[in-house]
Amino acid sequence: MSLLLAPWTRLSLLVVLLLAAGVCVVLYEPQRILSEGWPPGLPVGAAVLLFAAAYGVGTAALVPRPLLNLAAGAVFGIPFGLVAAVGGSVIGAGIAFGLGRLLGRDAVRPLLRGRWLQAADDQLARHGFRSMLAVRIFPGLPFAAANYLAAVSRCGWLPFLLATAIGVVPNTAAYVVAGASASSPDSPAFLASFGFITVSAVAAAVVGWRERHRLAPVPACETHAPVPEHPPVVSAAPHGP
């Protein structure tokens, strides 16, 4: 029983689950929803809830969010598509965060010995909401990777989920609008959404480059005040007869 609860055994189980989910994604081909649409006959509310649940499971299984966001816009339009995509993002983030914390955290945390990793962990522990909000608004790190990495850190549940729910809205809305207007790629809505996606990607790269020094811990030699140098003592004793 103790072997089953060992940290590396749980981490191996998480890896197996992710690999199995990846195989299912390849076999099922969720991108078919872009061409086939959602099954007809379902009420809109039920369809949105089912899509959000499937979206959440898909993101936890490493399905790219841009594809799911485009599908949400193409199937439901802008208002309902945005609700389904944002709800699915929060569900998927919660699933990945829970799996990572339950199955992988105990095995991975002892490996956080690099100064960059330790600095990132300290940042998430002290400023979890603000740090996760920046990660969500400026999409540089893949969504699934950010979820599982945050699970290993000391970031709390509430800051993580709240920052996700707020931070994914701008970028998700851009993809949903693009999916809803994909049939007319020369329309102002599609061009505006595509422009926003491009600008946000560039902004993420610029912000990440300019703020990279915040993750660098202060060297130990700089944490102490410098020792003042005393001038040499000049003796008044005579040196000769």
Automatic annotation (TrEMBL):
Location of the VTT domain: 63-180
Membrane topology: Multi-pass membrane protein
Origin superkingdom: Bacteria
Residues spanning the membrane: 6-28, 40-63, 75-99, 157-177, 189-209
Keywords: Cell membrane, Membrane, Transmembrane, Transmembrane helix
One of the Pfam families matching this protein, by short name: VTT_dom
Subcellular location: Cell membrane
Principal location: membrane
Homology family: Belongs to the TVP38/TMEM64 family.
PANTHER family from the UniProt entry: GOLGI APPARATUS MEMBRANE PROTEIN TVP38-RELATED (PTHR12677:SF59)
Protein name (Swiss-Prot/TrEMBL): TVP38/TMEM64 family membrane protein
Organism of origin: Streptomyces flavotricini
